[in-house]
Amino acid sequence: MTTFPVHTMESAPERSKPALQQLQSAFGMIPNIAGAMATSPVLIGSLVGLFGKVHGGSFTEAQVQAVLLTDAVTNACAWAVAFHTTLALKEGIDAEDVQAIRDGRLPRDGKLAALSALARTMIEKRGRLDDQDIGRFIAAGFGKDHALEVIAIVAASTITNYTGSITKPPLEAPFQAHAWQG
Fold it and tell me: A Pfam family matched by this chain, by name (predicted)?
């Protein structure tokens, strides 16, 4: 089995350190998955660049977390499911809606359901959405710009989800309560 290091600020390649510092500032810690990504300055730098855009976009942080959790479940990345479960609950998403997403179901909240459905469909269809997929999303009160913005969130989560599946970083203690097996 190939193992990947989980870098700290001290052990990371020099070119990865600025990205790790940004994540440290955002989360108050360097998530293990970011420490694993730091092996590649290109990968960690790409994530951090996209991270700022995704979390500074037009969706609320709760809506972003609903998409990120949906993506983690759809991509079967156990680390990301636990992490985004924790953040979704922290952002005030109803626990039943969080559990629905973790179970592969749609949340009861209509806006979150539309976001979750679009994100899951986007991944499952590899971006080949049809007019009905987009129409349902727009009917929930979102615009075409929002549909395109979901692509950026899915891209960011794909980086994290694929890294988690490949590197298998250990799950930090704060996220253990939300451990997940797909």
Answer: CMD
Provide the token pair at 141.
């009160």
CA 47 to chain centre: 11
Mean pLDDT of 107-135: 96
Choosing among 2.160.20.10, 1.20.120.530, 1.20.1290.10, 3.40.50.1100, the CATH entry for 61-178 is 1.20.1290.10
* b (16+ CB within 10 A) / e for 41-68: bebbbbbbebbeebeebebeebbbbbbb
Give tens-digit pLDDT for 54-100.
888 899 999 999 999 999 999 999 999 999 999 999 999 999 999 99
Amino acid at 179: A
Q: Is the pTM of this model over 0.90?
A: yes
d(C-alpha 71, C-alpha 101), whole Å = 10
Angle at 178 between CA 172 and CA 182, to 5 degrees: 105
Round to whole Å and give the CA distance between 179 and 163: 17
Are the beta carbons of 88 and 66 closer than 8 angstroms? Answer: yes
What contacts 179, CB < 8 A, 6 or more positions away? 78, 82, 171
Full DSSP string of 19-52: HHHHHHHHHSS--HHHHHHTTSHHHHHHHHHHHH
